[in-house]
């Protein structure tokens, strides 16, 4: 049985992201982290929808002076991909980023206190 039920209506890629993190034995997420993950999954769904829509259209549009410009959806896709990256950074998952385990100050303090007092939890 999964640890955390995914938000309703997630698409395939978003559901894969959710299950790969929220229901992984490697991670234990707090409620605030689950909210961040939910936002990231919703962004992934939005990106998928925009990519399908862009696939039907042109990569360029006509600008105000009649010049070719990038289609507006391309800039939106870039912004939403950046948002997913930022949300994932907020989760500070071990092993993400530069290959080193990332820990918050609170997690480091907790580990130090546990080591000092001999707690194994």
Please sum up the structure shown:
With 121 residues, the protein is mainly alpha-helical.
Can you describe what's shown?
The structure is a single chain. The chain is mainly alpha-helical and 121 residues long. It has one domain. The protein has 4 helices and 2 strands, in the order ααββαα. The chain has a two-stranded antiparallel ribbon with strand order 1-2. Strand 1 and strand 2 form a beta hairpin. The longest helix is centred in the middle third of the chain and has 26 residues. The two termini are 24 Å apart. About 4% of the residues have low confidence.
List the helices and strands and how they pair.
Blueprint: H1 12-22, H2 31-56, E1 60-62, E2 68-70, H3 72-91, H4 105-117
Antiparallel strand pairs: 1-2
Classify the helix fraction into a percent range.
55-70%
- N-to-C terminal Cα separation, in Å? 24 Å
Strand order of the largest sheet: 1-2
Oligomer: single chain
Rg result: 20 Å
Largest sheet: 2 strands, antiparallel
> Quick one: how many beta strands?
2
- Low-confidence segments: 98-102
Order of helices and strands: HHEEHH
What structural class results from the helix and strand content? Answer: mainly alpha
Strand content: under 5%
Mean pLDDT: 86
Shape: elongated
H/I helix tally? 4
